[in-house]
Amino acid sequence: MNDGAYAVVNGECPTCALVRPLLGSLPVAVVDEDTPAGLETSYSLGVDTVPTLVRFADGAEVERLVGWDRAAWSAFFGVSGLGPDLPEWRPGCGSRVVDPAVADELAVRFGGGVLRSRRVELASLEDEAEAMFSRGWTDGLPVVPPTEARVLRMLAGTRRAPGEVVAVVPPDLAECTVEKVAVNAVLAGCKPEYLPVVLACVEAACTSEFNAHGLLATTYFSGPVVVVNGPVAARIGMNSGVNALGQGNRANATIGRALQLVIRNVGGGRPGGVDRATLGNPGKYTFCFAEDEAGSPWEPLSVWRGAADGVSAVTLFAGEGPRGIVDQLSRTPESLARSFAGALRSVAHPKLVFAFDAMLVVSPEHARVFRDAGWSRERLLEELRTLLLLDGAELVRGAGGVAEGVPEAFGGAQLPKFRDDGLLLVHAGGGAGMFSAIIGGWVNGEAGSQPVTREVGE
Amino acid sequence: MSPVAVVLDPTSERSPAARERVARPSSLAGLTVGLLDISKPRGDVFLDRLSVLLTARGVGSVVRYAKPTFTKPAPVDLRHEIAVKCDVVIEALAD
Amino acid sequence: MHDIVDLEGRGVPGVFVASTEFVDAADAQARALGFPEVAAVFVPHPIQDRTDDELAALADNAVEAILAALLP
Predict the structure, then answer these.
(1) Is B55 helix (H, G, I), strand (E, B) or coil?
(2) Per residue in A137-189, pLDDT tens?
(3) How far does C37 lie from chain B, in Å, by closest CA?
(4) A155 to chain B: which residues are within 8 Å by CB?
(5) Mean pLDDT score across all residues of chain A
(6) Which one of A120, A121, A249, B71 has the fewest beta carbons within 10 angstroms of its own beta carbon?
(7) C-chain residues near A134 (CB < 8 A)
(8) Are A434 and A327 in contact (CB under 8 A)?
């Protein structure tokens, strides 16, 4: 804006009508919202009330007044006793810019220039829901058409610039911007406040440690499982309680889904193409939940993994579908730990060790047993390590009449079921039910996937 | 709420935005060609000749179908049958 | 046209044959269905009052274009 004074008005506001006669004789440029140029100026000045007086000096805004007030206007213009036959003051009215009926359209018209994604015109006879399916943009379930207005609203959920590159997404190794994540977050059904979490998920998934490419291309069951820690979970209404691993919560459902849609749409990874999973698992639609930190006997998973306490973070784990563990009778931690160990022994195969990680979701009723006995996370892990140190003789190929197993050479050794740090404990679930769950992992190590924890930014 | 007209592309944009024809076979030798008559008068005569010409050119086989009426899309069962039985399809004759 | 668009969606290469009267309408239809590149071959109008021999001649003259539309 050039230096000088401006008065933003529109034709519908009675206060504007009141002050209009004054404006003609004052050193002020009238910005009329009822003209296209005036509306755009009003939008760029962020005017939510008319009349608004704005003064620019040396290229910057130095003064702003809202509504009519004789004293304030007189001071603004450096004259005394402006508008003697007007009342002392009058409040203004909502500007055209903030009118809800047109806000979206204006955002697109004046703000849409930041959007760099290719515009796709739907044909006149195309149903917008069918159009999403026919272009291959969905996971098999309907998605929300990503209009410019929706994507702009989604982008308001982050401070990051739309053009910022978030990650390079396998398998196509395509650069993915904040904007592209936002488009897929719209498809998934996310709210704008979920976007920072989705961004953290995409960043974590595309690290070489997580190895999203390998995870996608394997014939194994696994897909990305997301655990959310920190204040963001409650702020966006995530579920860490009843049915935590199931359906019904919008944030849980759509955050996990948005990650999968980015992998599909931006990365180009889809079943039958690079995704060759023999069976897969339903978690590949979405698998995202929050840890119940308040009720947990232990520190948050993210903290155990090295993130700072009180900081929001996501942990990505290459997991299959959950399997249930029933134990309705154990009153001691030793007994319950044995139940867990018995179930954990069969992750992937009872005779295979070390190569697979696992996540153990401990429900509140089970966690209570450990809390009452004062067992820390490390104490429980130590117990499980001891219980899951297995006799190589039972594990070798051919042992027990089962061809699968570890190579002969390991027959004389004691072998741990899991590598150190290979068992991730998470606390979640409803308050009733003596059930916990195992989420088995994919192959760990260089060729496989490591869990990755990433802070959620803004 | 006005109908959706423009959306943003969620992909990496490495493929064309416009819909492309499905991949073609390298030759029709040995393939099954479906001839779908839209059932306007005289179209059958046109298709009769086309059938002779295609057979002479060495296509595997020619199968004739007809819609109940040219005024509506073909019934879904008919479209499914064509998709299952035919390798390519020719629909005629609109005027 | 709708049928060919649908069948292409089912993985069957297809071509639509119409008289030249239909050129503009076919283009509009194809665009409205979101498939402007759909394969179409046009034969000279009129159709209804042609003799069998004349219709056979239309087919003889159209077969090359029809085959071209079904091959790469």
Answers:
(1) helix
(2) 999 999 999 999 999 999 999 999 999 999 999 999 999 999 999 999 999 99
(3) 7
(4) none
(5) 95
(6) B71
(7) 9, 34
(8) yes
What residues does A92 pair with on adjacent strands? none
Total length of chain B: 95
Residue of A nearest to B15 (CA): A268
A-C Cβ pairs (cutoff 8 Å, strict): 16
Amino acid at A339: S
The pLDDT, as a whole number, for residue B2 is 46
Query: Which residues in chain C touch residue B67, judged by CB atoms under 8 angstroms apart?
Result: 3
Q: What is the pLDDT of residues A289-341, one digit of tens each?
A: 999 999 999 999 999 999 999 999 999 999 999 999 999 999 999 999 999 99
Cβ-defined contact of C48 to B41 (cutoff 8 Å): yes
Q: Mind giving me the DSSP string for A226-237?
A: EEEESTHHHHTT
Residue with tokens 């079921």: A417
Instruction: Give yes or no for A169 touching B (CB within 8 A).
Output: yes
User: CA neighbours within 13 Å on the CB side: how many for A284?
Assistant: 23
Exposed/middle/buried for residue A401 (C-beta within 10 Å: 0-12, 13-18, 19+): exposed
CB contact under 8 A, A131 and C9: no
C53 to chain B: closest CA residue: B45
Arithmetic mean of pLDDT, A358-381: 98
pLDDT digits (tens, 9 = 90+) for A80-113: 989 999 999 999 999 999 888 888 888 888 888 8
- Residues A240-260: b if buried by 16+ CB within 10 A, e if exposed: bbeebbeeebebbbbbbbbbb
- What 3-state DSSP class applies to A201? helix
Of B28, B45, B49, the CB nearest to C70: B28
Distance from CA of C31 to the nearest CA of A (A): 6
Give dist(CA C44, CA C40) in Å, integer.
13
* Of B48, B90, B37, B64, nearest in space to C55 by CA: B48
Q: What is the ipTM of this complex?
A: 0.96
pLDDT of residue B1: 39
Residue A131: closest CA among chain C residues belongs to which residue?
C34
Find, in chain B, the residue whose alpha carbon is nearest to that of C71.
Answer: B24
A126 vs chain C: nearest CA distance in angstroms?
Answer: 6
Structure tokens at A421: 């740090």
- The radius of gyration computed from the CA coordinates of chain B, to the nearest angstrom, equals 18
> N- to C-terminal Cα distance for chain B?
37
